[in-house]
Amino acid sequence: MKNIIQNINKAFDHRIRLGIMSVLMVNESADFNMLKELLGVTDGNLASHTKALESENYISIEKQFIGKKPNTKYIATKDGKKAFKEHIEALEKLIQKS
User: What Cα–Cα distance (Å) separates residue 21 from each residue in 49, 67, 80, 85?
Assistant: First the structure.
C-alpha cells in the first residue's frame, strides 16, 4: 500500500491548500479576496496556508497597490503545477485501486 501513496504530497493534505491550488490551476492568478470568498476561509487561515505553499515554491505571491488599496496576487509556479498534477494523479490511482 505504501507504493500507492508515495506520490501523495503532504503539502496538499489540507483542504484549504488543496482549494488554493485547484483555483490556481484553472486561473492564471487569484487575489486574496477571490481566494477568501471561493474557499470560505478567514484572513489568517488563508495567509498561513498561502505562506506554506510559498515556502514549498508551489506558489508565488505578488503584492502591489491598486489606487491606495493593497492587493495580493497568487500564481501557481511551474514546480507547483507539476507537484499538484502528480498529487492528483496519485489520488486517482489510489481511488482506482480501491
Answer: 11, 28, 8, 10
